[in-house]
From TrEMBL:
This is Xylose isomerase-like TIM barrel domain-containing protein. InterPro entries: IolE/XylAMocC-like, Xyl_isomerase-like_sf, Xyl_isomerase-like_TIM-brl. Coiled coil: none annotated. Transmembrane segments: none annotated. Pfam families: AP_endonuc_2 (PF01261). Gene3D superfamilies: Divalent-metal-dependent TIM barrel enzymes. Residues 37-338 form the Xylose isomerase-like TIM barrel domain. It comes from Penicillium capsulatum.
Protein backbone atom coordinates (compact mmCIF):
# COMPACT_ATOMS: atom_id res chain seq x y z
CA UNK A 1 0.00 0.00 0.00
CA UNK A 2 1.23 3.49 -0.79
CA UNK A 3 2.06 5.81 2.06
CA UNK A 4 0.85 9.36 1.76
CA UNK A 5 2.95 12.27 2.96
CA UNK A 6 1.26 14.44 5.58
CA UNK A 7 -0.03 17.78 4.25
CA UNK A 8 1.58 20.90 5.65
CA UNK A 9 0.11 22.45 8.77
CA UNK A 10 -2.80 24.86 8.38
CA UNK A 11 -2.09 28.47 7.57
CA UNK A 12 -4.55 29.41 10.29
CA UNK A 13 -4.70 29.08 14.07
CA UNK A 14 -8.46 28.56 13.78
CA UNK A 15 -10.16 25.19 13.59
CA UNK A 16 -11.16 26.01 10.03
CA UNK A 17 -9.50 28.02 7.29
CA UNK A 18 -11.80 30.07 5.00
CA UNK A 19 -11.70 29.52 1.27
CA UNK A 20 -13.86 30.26 -1.74
CA UNK A 21 -14.52 28.66 -5.11
CA UNK A 22 -13.41 30.75 -8.08
CA UNK A 23 -16.77 30.04 -9.73
CA UNK A 24 -18.36 31.95 -6.84
CA UNK A 25 -16.44 35.09 -7.83
CA UNK A 26 -17.67 35.35 -11.40
CA UNK A 27 -17.91 33.59 -14.73
CA UNK A 28 -14.53 32.65 -16.21
CA UNK A 29 -15.25 34.25 -19.60
CA UNK A 30 -16.34 37.54 -18.01
CA UNK A 31 -14.16 37.96 -14.93
CA UNK A 32 -10.37 37.47 -15.19
CA UNK A 33 -8.67 35.23 -12.68
CA UNK A 34 -6.54 38.15 -11.47
CA UNK A 35 -9.67 40.09 -10.46
CA UNK A 36 -10.95 37.05 -8.59
CA UNK A 37 -7.68 36.53 -6.75
CA UNK A 38 -7.51 40.20 -5.79
CA UNK A 39 -11.07 40.08 -4.46
CA UNK A 40 -10.47 36.88 -2.49
CA UNK A 41 -7.27 38.15 -0.88
CA UNK A 42 -8.79 41.55 -0.04
CA UNK A 43 -11.75 39.89 1.68
CA UNK A 44 -9.81 37.45 3.81
CA UNK A 45 -10.20 34.18 1.94
CA UNK A 46 -7.02 32.17 2.31
CA UNK A 47 -7.67 29.31 -0.07
CA UNK A 48 -9.21 28.73 -3.46
CA UNK A 49 -11.18 25.95 -5.04
CA UNK A 50 -9.86 26.55 -8.53
CA UNK A 51 -12.36 25.74 -11.25
CA UNK A 52 -10.85 24.30 -14.39
CA UNK A 53 -12.83 26.84 -16.45
CA UNK A 54 -10.56 29.54 -15.04
CA UNK A 55 -7.45 27.59 -16.00
CA UNK A 56 -8.78 27.01 -19.52
CA UNK A 57 -9.77 30.66 -19.93
CA UNK A 58 -6.35 31.90 -18.86
CA UNK A 59 -4.77 29.37 -21.22
CA UNK A 60 -6.77 30.88 -24.10
CA UNK A 61 -5.61 34.34 -23.08
CA UNK A 62 -1.98 33.24 -22.98
CA UNK A 63 -2.30 31.66 -26.42
CA UNK A 64 -3.72 34.89 -27.82
CA UNK A 65 -0.94 36.93 -26.23
CA UNK A 66 1.67 34.66 -27.73
CA UNK A 67 0.43 35.42 -31.23
CA UNK A 68 0.72 31.75 -32.14
CA UNK A 69 -1.37 30.90 -35.17
CA UNK A 70 -0.36 27.27 -35.45
CA UNK A 71 -1.04 24.17 -33.42
CA UNK A 72 2.56 23.59 -32.39
CA UNK A 73 1.53 23.85 -28.75
CA UNK A 74 -1.63 22.15 -27.56
CA UNK A 75 -4.38 23.46 -25.30
CA UNK A 76 -2.88 21.32 -22.55
CA UNK A 77 0.50 23.01 -23.02
CA UNK A 78 -1.10 26.39 -22.48
CA UNK A 79 -3.04 25.09 -19.46
CA UNK A 80 0.30 24.09 -17.94
CA UNK A 81 1.53 27.65 -18.53
CA UNK A 82 -1.69 28.93 -16.95
CA UNK A 83 -1.18 26.74 -13.88
CA UNK A 84 2.30 28.19 -13.34
CA UNK A 85 0.90 31.70 -13.72
CA UNK A 86 -1.95 31.09 -11.27
CA UNK A 87 0.37 29.65 -8.67
CA UNK A 88 2.63 32.69 -8.93
CA UNK A 89 -0.36 35.04 -8.70
CA UNK A 90 -1.64 33.21 -5.63
CA UNK A 91 1.74 33.22 -3.93
CA UNK A 92 2.04 36.98 -4.29
CA UNK A 93 -1.40 37.38 -2.68
CA UNK A 94 -0.93 34.91 0.14
CA UNK A 95 -3.48 32.50 -1.30
CA UNK A 96 -3.30 28.71 -1.52
CA UNK A 97 -4.97 26.53 -4.13
CA UNK A 98 -6.61 23.74 -2.16
CA UNK A 99 -8.58 22.03 -4.92
CA UNK A 100 -8.88 21.72 -8.68
CA UNK A 101 -12.39 20.89 -9.79
CA UNK A 102 -14.79 19.62 -11.06
CA UNK A 103 -13.56 16.44 -12.76
CA UNK A 104 -17.04 15.52 -14.00
CA UNK A 105 -18.61 12.33 -15.31
CA UNK A 106 -15.82 9.94 -14.49
CA UNK A 107 -17.10 6.95 -12.54
CA UNK A 108 -19.28 4.18 -13.94
CA UNK A 109 -18.87 4.89 -17.66
CA UNK A 110 -20.15 1.95 -19.68
CA UNK A 111 -18.09 2.73 -22.80
CA UNK A 112 -14.47 1.55 -22.20
CA UNK A 113 -13.19 4.12 -24.68
CA UNK A 114 -14.80 6.99 -22.77
CA UNK A 115 -13.38 5.63 -19.52
CA UNK A 116 -9.89 5.57 -21.05
CA UNK A 117 -10.32 9.16 -22.26
CA UNK A 118 -11.26 10.31 -18.78
CA UNK A 119 -8.22 8.61 -17.29
CA UNK A 120 -6.02 10.36 -19.85
CA UNK A 121 -7.59 13.69 -18.91
CA UNK A 122 -7.14 12.89 -15.23
CA UNK A 123 -3.44 12.41 -15.82
CA UNK A 124 -3.34 15.93 -17.24
CA UNK A 125 -5.16 17.25 -14.18
CA UNK A 126 -2.61 15.53 -11.96
CA UNK A 127 0.14 17.36 -13.82
CA UNK A 128 -1.71 20.66 -13.32
CA UNK A 129 -2.19 19.90 -9.62
CA UNK A 130 1.50 19.28 -9.05
CA UNK A 131 2.17 22.74 -10.45
CA UNK A 132 -0.66 24.56 -8.66
CA UNK A 133 0.18 23.64 -5.10
CA UNK A 134 1.94 21.47 -2.57
CA UNK A 135 -1.15 20.03 -0.89
CA UNK A 136 -4.24 20.11 -3.03
CA UNK A 137 -6.76 17.60 -4.26
CA UNK A 138 -8.81 16.95 -7.36
CA UNK A 139 -12.54 16.95 -6.70
CA UNK A 140 -14.67 14.36 -8.49
CA UNK A 141 -18.42 15.04 -8.20
CA UNK A 142 -20.79 12.13 -8.68
CA UNK A 143 -21.88 11.65 -12.27
CA UNK A 144 -25.30 12.77 -13.44
CA UNK A 145 -25.15 11.29 -16.93
CA UNK A 146 -28.12 9.37 -18.30
CA UNK A 147 -28.42 5.75 -17.07
CA UNK A 148 -27.78 4.64 -20.65
CA UNK A 149 -24.20 5.93 -20.29
CA UNK A 150 -23.24 4.89 -16.77
CA UNK A 151 -23.74 1.96 -14.46
CA UNK A 152 -24.87 2.12 -10.88
CA UNK A 153 -23.06 -1.10 -9.97
CA UNK A 154 -21.48 -0.21 -6.63
CA UNK A 155 -18.52 -2.56 -7.05
CA UNK A 156 -17.69 -0.92 -10.38
CA UNK A 157 -17.93 2.58 -8.86
CA UNK A 158 -15.59 1.52 -6.06
CA UNK A 159 -13.07 0.16 -8.59
CA UNK A 160 -13.22 3.33 -10.66
CA UNK A 161 -12.53 5.60 -7.67
CA UNK A 162 -9.71 3.34 -6.52
CA UNK A 163 -8.22 3.48 -10.01
CA UNK A 164 -8.41 7.28 -10.04
CA UNK A 165 -6.69 7.48 -6.65
CA UNK A 166 -3.92 5.12 -7.74
CA UNK A 167 -3.34 7.06 -10.95
CA UNK A 168 -3.26 10.39 -9.11
CA UNK A 169 -1.07 9.37 -6.15
CA UNK A 170 0.32 11.24 -4.29
CA UNK A 171 -2.19 13.89 -5.40
CA UNK A 172 -5.36 13.40 -3.40
CA UNK A 173 -8.85 12.76 -4.74
CA UNK A 174 -12.05 13.94 -3.04
CA UNK A 175 -15.39 12.42 -4.00
CA UNK A 176 -18.59 14.44 -3.59
CA UNK A 177 -22.20 13.32 -3.85
CA UNK A 178 -24.27 15.75 -5.93
CA UNK A 179 -27.92 15.95 -4.91
CA UNK A 180 -28.95 15.20 -8.51
CA UNK A 181 -26.40 12.43 -9.11
CA UNK A 182 -27.79 9.56 -11.15
CA UNK A 183 -26.78 6.82 -8.72
CA UNK A 184 -24.72 8.61 -6.04
CA UNK A 185 -26.65 11.50 -4.51
CA UNK A 186 -26.25 11.29 -0.73
CA UNK A 187 -23.25 11.57 1.55
CA UNK A 188 -23.95 7.98 2.59
CA UNK A 189 -23.45 6.83 -1.02
CA UNK A 190 -20.18 8.70 -1.48
CA UNK A 191 -18.81 7.68 1.93
CA UNK A 192 -19.55 4.01 1.25
CA UNK A 193 -17.60 4.17 -2.01
CA UNK A 194 -14.66 6.04 -0.45
CA UNK A 195 -14.55 3.64 2.50
CA UNK A 196 -14.67 0.54 0.31
CA UNK A 197 -12.11 1.84 -2.20
CA UNK A 198 -9.73 2.23 0.77
CA UNK A 199 -6.98 4.37 -0.70
CA UNK A 200 -4.86 6.68 1.50
CA UNK A 201 -5.23 9.59 -0.93
CA UNK A 202 -9.00 9.20 -1.40
CA UNK A 203 -11.45 11.11 0.76
CA UNK A 204 -14.83 12.76 0.83
CA UNK A 205 -16.12 16.30 0.32
CA UNK A 206 -19.19 17.39 2.29
CA UNK A 207 -21.43 20.14 0.89
CA UNK A 208 -24.20 21.73 2.92
CA UNK A 209 -26.20 22.61 -0.19
CA UNK A 210 -26.10 19.13 -1.70
CA UNK A 211 -26.98 17.48 1.60
CA UNK A 212 -29.89 19.80 2.37
CA UNK A 213 -31.12 19.88 -1.23
CA UNK A 214 -31.37 16.10 -1.42
CA UNK A 215 -32.88 15.42 2.00
CA UNK A 216 -34.97 18.50 2.71
CA UNK A 217 -35.57 20.91 -0.17
CA UNK A 218 -37.95 20.91 -3.12
CA UNK A 219 -37.66 24.09 -5.21
CA UNK A 220 -40.67 23.02 -7.30
CA UNK A 221 -42.97 23.04 -4.27
CA UNK A 222 -44.85 26.18 -3.19
CA UNK A 223 -43.29 25.69 0.25
CA UNK A 224 -39.79 25.20 -1.18
CA UNK A 225 -39.35 22.05 0.85
CA UNK A 226 -40.31 18.41 1.18
CA UNK A 227 -43.02 17.34 3.67
CA UNK A 228 -42.53 17.85 7.41
CA UNK A 229 -40.99 14.40 7.83
CA UNK A 230 -37.90 15.76 6.05
CA UNK A 231 -36.89 17.47 9.30
CA UNK A 232 -36.55 14.10 11.02
CA UNK A 233 -34.89 12.56 7.97
CA UNK A 234 -32.25 15.28 7.96
CA UNK A 235 -31.72 15.06 11.71
CA UNK A 236 -31.24 11.29 11.54
CA UNK A 237 -28.86 11.60 8.60
CA UNK A 238 -26.72 14.17 10.41
CA UNK A 239 -26.56 11.94 13.49
CA UNK A 240 -25.30 9.08 11.28
CA UNK A 241 -22.79 11.40 9.62
CA UNK A 242 -21.29 12.30 12.99
CA UNK A 243 -21.14 8.63 14.03
CA UNK A 244 -19.85 7.11 10.81
CA UNK A 245 -17.53 9.45 8.93
CA UNK A 246 -13.85 9.57 9.81
CA UNK A 247 -13.02 13.30 9.97
CA UNK A 248 -9.49 12.56 8.79
CA UNK A 249 -10.99 11.45 5.47
CA UNK A 250 -12.89 14.72 4.96
CA UNK A 251 -10.86 16.87 2.58
CA UNK A 252 -13.15 19.89 2.54
CA UNK A 253 -16.48 21.16 3.81
CA UNK A 254 -18.35 23.43 1.41
CA UNK A 255 -20.92 25.95 2.60
CA UNK A 256 -23.84 27.23 0.55
CA UNK A 257 -27.52 27.97 1.03
CA UNK A 258 -30.30 28.00 -1.53
CA UNK A 259 -32.66 30.77 -2.57
CA UNK A 260 -36.36 30.14 -2.27
CA UNK A 261 -37.72 30.75 -5.75
CA UNK A 262 -41.04 30.73 -7.55
CA UNK A 263 -41.69 27.13 -8.71
CA UNK A 264 -42.50 28.59 -12.12
CA UNK A 265 -39.11 30.30 -12.39
CA UNK A 266 -38.00 29.89 -16.03
CA UNK A 267 -34.63 28.34 -15.17
CA UNK A 268 -36.45 25.51 -13.34
CA UNK A 269 -38.30 24.68 -16.56
CA UNK A 270 -35.18 23.85 -18.59
CA UNK A 271 -35.89 20.62 -20.51
CA UNK A 272 -33.79 17.54 -19.77
CA UNK A 273 -32.13 19.23 -16.81
CA UNK A 274 -32.70 17.90 -13.28
CA UNK A 275 -34.62 20.44 -11.23
CA UNK A 276 -32.10 20.39 -8.40
CA UNK A 277 -29.26 20.98 -10.87
CA UNK A 278 -31.08 23.91 -12.51
CA UNK A 279 -31.75 25.39 -9.08
CA UNK A 280 -28.16 24.85 -7.95
CA UNK A 281 -26.65 26.54 -11.00
CA UNK A 282 -28.82 29.61 -10.68
CA UNK A 283 -29.90 30.14 -7.11
CA UNK A 284 -27.32 29.23 -4.50
CA UNK A 285 -26.56 31.78 -1.82
CA UNK A 286 -23.84 32.24 0.73
CA UNK A 287 -24.87 30.91 4.15
CA UNK A 288 -26.77 33.19 6.51
CA UNK A 289 -28.15 35.30 3.65
CA UNK A 290 -31.78 35.04 4.67
CA UNK A 291 -32.26 38.62 3.50
CA UNK A 292 -31.65 37.33 -0.04
CA UNK A 293 -34.08 34.42 0.29
CA UNK A 294 -31.87 31.77 1.88
CA UNK A 295 -33.94 29.19 3.73
CA UNK A 296 -32.20 25.82 3.83
CA UNK A 297 -31.26 24.23 7.20
CA UNK A 298 -27.62 25.01 6.49
CA UNK A 299 -26.72 25.65 10.10
CA UNK A 300 -27.87 22.18 11.16
CA UNK A 301 -25.80 20.56 8.42
CA UNK A 302 -22.76 22.75 9.11
CA UNK A 303 -23.04 22.01 12.84
CA UNK A 304 -22.82 18.28 12.11
CA UNK A 305 -20.05 18.55 9.52
CA UNK A 306 -17.90 20.93 11.58
CA UNK A 307 -18.55 20.80 15.32
CA UNK A 308 -20.22 17.40 15.46
CA UNK A 309 -17.71 15.60 13.30
CA UNK A 310 -14.76 17.38 14.85
CA UNK A 311 -13.48 18.34 11.40
CA UNK A 312 -10.62 20.81 11.15
CA UNK A 313 -9.33 22.20 7.86
CA UNK A 314 -10.62 24.06 4.82
CA UNK A 315 -14.16 25.41 4.76
CA UNK A 316 -15.04 26.82 1.38
CA UNK A 317 -17.86 28.95 0.08
CA UNK A 318 -19.13 27.34 -3.12
CA UNK A 319 -21.94 29.36 -4.64
CA UNK A 320 -23.23 29.00 -8.17
CA UNK A 321 -25.57 31.83 -9.09
CA UNK A 322 -27.06 33.73 -11.97
CA UNK A 323 -25.46 36.80 -10.38
CA UNK A 324 -21.95 35.51 -11.14
CA UNK A 325 -22.81 35.70 -14.83
CA UNK A 326 -23.45 39.43 -14.78
CA UNK A 327 -21.15 41.40 -17.09
CA UNK A 328 -20.07 43.77 -14.34
CA UNK A 329 -16.44 44.16 -13.24
CA UNK A 330 -17.52 44.61 -9.62
CA UNK A 331 -18.92 41.06 -9.40
CA UNK A 332 -15.75 39.47 -7.90
CA UNK A 333 -15.51 42.12 -5.18
CA UNK A 334 -19.23 41.95 -4.41
CA UNK A 335 -19.24 38.18 -4.05
CA UNK A 336 -16.00 38.02 -2.08
CA UNK A 337 -17.39 40.60 0.36
CA UNK A 338 -20.61 38.61 0.73
CA UNK A 339 -18.56 35.49 1.46
CA UNK A 340 -16.63 37.42 4.11
CA UNK A 341 -19.82 38.50 5.87
CA UNK A 342 -21.31 35.03 5.54
CA UNK A 343 -18.31 33.35 7.16
CA UNK A 344 -18.38 35.74 10.10
CA UNK A 345 -22.10 35.17 10.57
CA UNK A 346 -21.65 31.40 10.38
CA UNK A 347 -18.90 31.44 13.00
CA UNK A 348 -21.20 33.31 15.36
CA UNK A 349 -24.04 30.86 14.77
CA UNK A 350 -21.69 27.94 15.41
CA UNK A 351 -20.78 29.68 18.68
CA UNK A 352 -17.10 29.92 17.83
CA UNK A 353 -15.38 32.05 20.45
CA UNK A 354 -12.75 34.03 18.55
CA UNK A 355 -11.79 37.63 18.20
CA UNK A 356 -13.34 39.41 15.23
CA UNK A 357 -9.98 40.19 13.64
CA UNK A 358 -9.01 36.51 13.81
CA UNK A 359 -11.98 35.37 11.75
CA UNK A 360 -10.36 36.49 8.55
CA UNK A 361 -6.76 37.05 9.57
Amino acid sequence: MHSLPSPPSSVSDLLWTPAIATVSLGAAHLHPITAKLDAAAKNGQRGLELFHDDVAQLAKTLRCRSGERTTIRSDRDYEIDAAHTIRDLCTRRGLQVLALQPFRHYEGLIDPGQHAQRLDELQHWVQLSKILGDSLFILIPSSFLDPSQITGDRDRLVRDLAQAADLAFPIRIAYEALAWGTYVNTWEDSWDIVRRADRPNLGICLDTFNIAARLWADPTSPTGRQPAVADQVLQSSMARLVREIDPDRVMMVQLADGERVDPQEPFLQAPDLPKLLAWSRNARLFPCEEERGGYLPVQAVAEACLNGLGYTGWVSMEVFSRTTGEDDPSVPDQHAARAHRSWQRMLKRLDVKIEQDQAFG
